[in-house]
Write a sequence for this structure.
């Protein structure tokens, strides 16, 4: 067990290093000088543009810039934003909890939607309800979340003159309003994951239900309910944990869209803004943060997986 | 020798394909429907611009923001352009980006996955860490950044979405390669004296094709959705090329859809239908090609 944990943890630094190289490299390798264009658009005169570039250190060698960036990161300094007074770190700190709240709610919704439907479907394979649930799941994987979200704003407004709340209220100011705000985007965001969970639960249950230990449990005379919940589902749930963990990256991608539609000032919106304003310093740091965050979640999932499934520790 | 060779000659390929098709039609009715929709979509992508009733870039072919009428079955947009024609022609962009990106993504992933899977060792170790690094990212986030800095164009969107698929798909190919590598027929081929390239191309590749076809089909749906999302966020293919994503969220509808929901309704429905078709087709292919994953 210890060796397994050690091996996984030791892989973190090289992976972070590679992530940072990918981010830094891909932004610097780009042709042209987008920052210059952007400043020119904003009406900044040429000599000031040169000065801004010097202040940002963009005229120095790449290696020096990279080391400087890394050094700043180690001190918790993510750089400054060009078009805003707040530093990137401050803005990211403000945005992160919003994205996390959206993500956690979506995972909850996905579990609530996916697990019961997957179980029902697996217990009656080939039945009408199985067919319906499976078709709905493919629907959940196919429907564009930005379309659904737009319709959920537009249609109720037309039919009942009701518009979902679209101005952000912090949890500290008003917990109820805050959660209400997240319900609709979290639900839309959860559909894809919910469908994936449903399909996973179904196929795992179908696999597990034929296992010898399930037959033994039945032979012992346990009720079907007990067989399903205590013996079959517990084993089927292990890969489901992995799927949910691995979906964090996709959820973050989707939250860019949800945040921009529902007016939530989270990490996704910060990034989108940075891209639109071509604030490379900010894109670079926020993207790295997102990558490290996802990697740590994946690590946690791997460790939980090792804990749930003793076989893997010796693999 | 010649007699023995003819004994082991496989059945006529045409016959096998015809049988496979027939089986697919019978066993996978939903998959067949999916395949038909996919076929229609591809055809529209090819001939769309030549059959539509109205020129898509022509302004004011009808009244502005009209609801669906007989002349304009899906209504018109804020510039008085015919929505029905724009949706048909929009299929072209989705086809181009979808098939282009999947060709790049699965093609490169196949080469990479086969190579590192077969060779193994240090090379594999390093490549897998890079794949980990790329996979730690939400693909949409990387796509946004890349298109944001490269500049939005159909070619850039295709390239970016294709390159982003390489990491995850190469892992699937590598996994299958690792399994096939240990099989007795690969060992036999090596014993007979076949070199590494020959073993990989003639013996390993044919055995990893099934999972590849399945991933490629499902990825098509995902890529088309991603193109829609990029266009929706304003980082897709710029106007005047009609794009379903931009029709939903771009300037031409954002300020008007509250009073004209048909502006959003139809392009989104087209997108959903196509992705749904690819997913059903992909699922059916998986059932047929990869019985281990059937789970029944």
């Amino acid at each position: 067990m210890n060796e397994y944990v050690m091996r996984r943890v030791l892989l973190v630094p090289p992976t972070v290093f590679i992530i940072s190289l990918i981010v830094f490299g891909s932004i610097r390798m780009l042709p042209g000088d987008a920052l210059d264009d952007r400043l020119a658009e904003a009406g900044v005169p040429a000599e000031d543009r040169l000065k801004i570039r010097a202040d940002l250190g963009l005229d120095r060698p790449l290696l020096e810039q990279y080391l400087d960036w890394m050094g700043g990161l180690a001190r918790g300094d993510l750089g400054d934003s060009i078009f805003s007074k707040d530093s990137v770190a401050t803005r990211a700190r403000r945005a992160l909890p919003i994205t996390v709240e959206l993500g956690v709610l979506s995972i909850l919704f996905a579990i609530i939607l996916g697990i019961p439907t997957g179980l029902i479907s697996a217990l009656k394979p080939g039945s009408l309800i199985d067919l319906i649930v499976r078709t709905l799941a493919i629907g959940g994987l196919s429907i564009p979340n930005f379309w659904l979200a737009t319709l959920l704003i537009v249609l109720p407004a037309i039919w009942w003159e009701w518009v979902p709340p679209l101005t952000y209220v912090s949890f500290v100011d008003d917990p109820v309003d805050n959660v209400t705000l997240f319900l609709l985007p979290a639900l839309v965001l959860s559909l894809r994951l919910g469908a994936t969970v449903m399909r996973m639960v179904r196929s795992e249950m179908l696999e597990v239900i034929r296992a010898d230990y399930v037959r033994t449990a039945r032979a012992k005379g346990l009720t079907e309910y007990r067989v399903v919940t205590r013996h079959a589902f517990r084993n089927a749930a292990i890969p489901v944990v992995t799927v949910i963990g691995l979906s964090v990256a996709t959820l973050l991608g989707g939250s860019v869209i949800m945040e921009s539609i529902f007016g939530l000032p989270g990490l996704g919106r910060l990034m989108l803004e940075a891209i639109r304003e071509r604030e490379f310093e900010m894109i670079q740091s926020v993207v790295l943060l997102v990558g490290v965050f996802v990697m740590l979640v994946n690590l946690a999932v791997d460790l939980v997986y090792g804990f749930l499934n003793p076989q893997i520790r010796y693999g | 020798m010649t007699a023995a060779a003819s004994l082991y000659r496989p059945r006529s390929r045409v016959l096998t394909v015809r049988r496979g098709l027939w089986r697919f039609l019978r066993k996978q009715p939903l998959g067949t429907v999916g395949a038909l929709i996919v076929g229609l979509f591809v055809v529209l992508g090819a001939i769309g611009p030549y059959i539509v009733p109205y020129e898509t870039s022509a302004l004011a072919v009808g009244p502005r923001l009209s609801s669906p009428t007989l002349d304009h079955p899906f209504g018109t947009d804020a510039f008085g352009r015919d929505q029905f024609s724009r949706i048909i022609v929009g299929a072209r962009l989705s086809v181009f980006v979808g098939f282009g990106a999947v060709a790049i993504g699965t093609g490169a992933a196949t080469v990479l996955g086969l190579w590192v899977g077969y060779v193994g060792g240090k090379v594999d170790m390093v490549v897998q860490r890079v794949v980990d690094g790329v996979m730690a990212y939400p693909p949409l986030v990387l796509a946004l950044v890349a298109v944001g800095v490269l500049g939005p164009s159909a070619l850039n969107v295709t390239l970016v979405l294709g390159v982003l698929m390489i990491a995850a798909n190469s892992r699937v190919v590598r996994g299958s390669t690792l399994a096939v590598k240990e099989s007795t027929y690969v060992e036999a081929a090596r014993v007979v004296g076949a070199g590494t390239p020959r073993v990989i191309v003639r013996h390993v590749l044919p055995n990893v094709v099934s999972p590849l076809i399945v991933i490629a089909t499902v990825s098509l749906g995902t890529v088309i959705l991603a193109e829609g999302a990029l266009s929706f966020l304003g980082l897709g293919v710029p106007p005047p090329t009609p794009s379903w994503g931009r029709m939903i969220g771009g300037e031409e509808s954002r300020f008007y859809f509250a009073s004209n929901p048909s502006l959003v309704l139809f392009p989104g429905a087209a997108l959903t239908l196509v992705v749904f078709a690819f997913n059903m087709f992909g699922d059916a292919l998986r059932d047929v090609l990869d019985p281990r994953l059937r789970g029944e």
Q: What stands out?
A: Chain B touches chain A through 48 residues (CB under 8 Å).
